Amino acid sequence: MVDLIGTDANDKLLGTFSEDWLIGLAGNDILDGKGGDDTLSGGDGKDILRSGSGDDLAYGGAGNDKLFGDAGNDSLVGGTGRDTLNGGADDDTLSGGEGNDKLFGGDGADLLFGGDGNDRLRGGEGQDALYGDAGHDKLYGEMGDDQLSGGAGNDTLYGGEGNDTLSGDFDGDPEFGNDYLSGGNGDDRLEGWDGRDTLEGGNGNDVLIGGEDDDLLDGGDGNDILSAGYGKDTLIGGVGDDGLSGREGDDELYGGEGDDRLIGGEDDDLLDGGTGADVLRGGDGNDLMFGGDGNDEMYSGEGIDTLYGGAGDDRLFGGSLGTTIIYGEEGNDFIQGNSDVMIFDGGAGDDILFGGDDPFGISTLNGGEGCDFVRGLGGDDVLFGDDGNDWVIGDGGDDLMTGGADADVFVFETANPFEHDTITDLRDGADLIRFSADFGASLDEWGDLDTNGNGVLDDADDRVSLSNGHTVIDLSDEFGAVAGTHTITILGITDVSATDISFADVFWGC
């Protein structure tokens, strides 16, 4: 064991294999502790400190110093200046101090603190913890399950191999920066905190969390979970079955490849499922949603939402409040409304469309191309079958019903008072009006309408009147109500015959 104190000149101090104290003082000194648990202090100047084997403590002091830990659990402190610290083997603690420092943990579970300045920290092998602190720092976790925190400043963090945890800033740090976080391989957790941050999960099943400002989150490969913060964030799921959720702010969510789940959050969001069987939920705000390829489920929330199903057999649902606009697009889609105002277009394919059951709601439903089932339910609805052999069902409210091209069926299943339905385009020999067995007790055959038996509906029938080239069927007596309470008006037709109306139990099918 020796205690060596240098001079103000350039000294070289060599320890023993016991517990030594080496103090360089001023000058560009070389200190070598060799073996044992040593304490080394470089002092002023550009010093080189080699602690050697053992659990050593080394202080660089002022100047641009180089500190080497070697074997053992060492503590290296750079001090002021641009220092280089290398922990070597085992579990080391490195602190850069002031200046733009370079810290290398080496093998073992190391703890690295950059301190003030623009520092570069490398964990090496083992489960390391890296803290950049103040300055624009670069942190590399490398091998092992590492923990990286950038601290104040615009920091860059690379997790490397292993299941890493990356944080752009310290929790509670008053000076946040715009950080870049890359998880690398492994199942990583990335948190941006404040600042405009970019988070990339890389390979593995990662968790990415934005912060206060406008962040970019990219999950990469794997089944990732992405959560926006309080800014206008962009979330990209990438490859895999991902879960993306907005929060406050007008967020953009892109599922990418795989079966993804997207939730919009509180404000006006854009959701794009990408390929795969995705589930999209709009949340609050005026949202724009694209299902993309695949058989998707899409749910409108509150606000004025617009949904595009895309390719595939999709299921699309309107929200409980506000206005919902839905385009089924390609595929055999199912569309269900539940909003105050609904505008639905089934698009290509054999689609099923239901309006909402709110008696005060307003629906406009268009089946589009294909063999469609269009049902208004409650409220005053505008219903279009469009191209194909369609079924158009009004149900409650005053409904306007148009079959469109091809052979269509206008269905009246239940009789309710105070309804006034209108058929705009009944074509003789092509379209059909169907009354179900549940419609009314006194309406189950042609003779219940053609009461004079002449084969057509005209003014001589008890329940029929012709007005301005239209046929009006009055079924108010089904409720014991006064005339005009429940009517069906067939526009442009005055010769409705038995071939135009059916009372048989036929069912929709394509």
UniProtKB/TrEMBL annotation:
Q: Name one GO molecular function term.
A: toxin activity
Chief location category: membrane
Name the InterPro entries on file. Hemolysin-typ_Ca-bd_CS, Hemolysn_Ca-bd, RTX_toxin/Mannuronan_C5-epim, RTX_toxin_determinant-A, Serralysin-like_metalloprot_C
Q: Where is this region: Disordered?
A: 79-101, 141-216, 237-257
Compositional bias of type Basic and acidic residues: which residue ranges? Answer: 186-199
Listed A to Z, the keywords are:
Hydrolase, Membrane, Repeat, Secreted, Toxin, Virulence
Q: Name one GO cellular component term.
A: extracellular region
EC class of the enzyme, as a word:
hydrolase
One family from Pfam that matches here is HemolysinCabind
What EC number(s) does the entry state? 3.1.3.1
Indicate yes or no for the key word Ligase.
Answer: no
What SUPFAM superfamilies would the database entry show?
beta-Roll (SSF51120)
Question: What does the UniProt entry say about where the protein is found?
Answer: Membrane; Secreted
Asked if the record carries the keyword Amino-acid biosynthesis, the reply is no
Instruction: Name it.
Output: Alkaline phosphatase
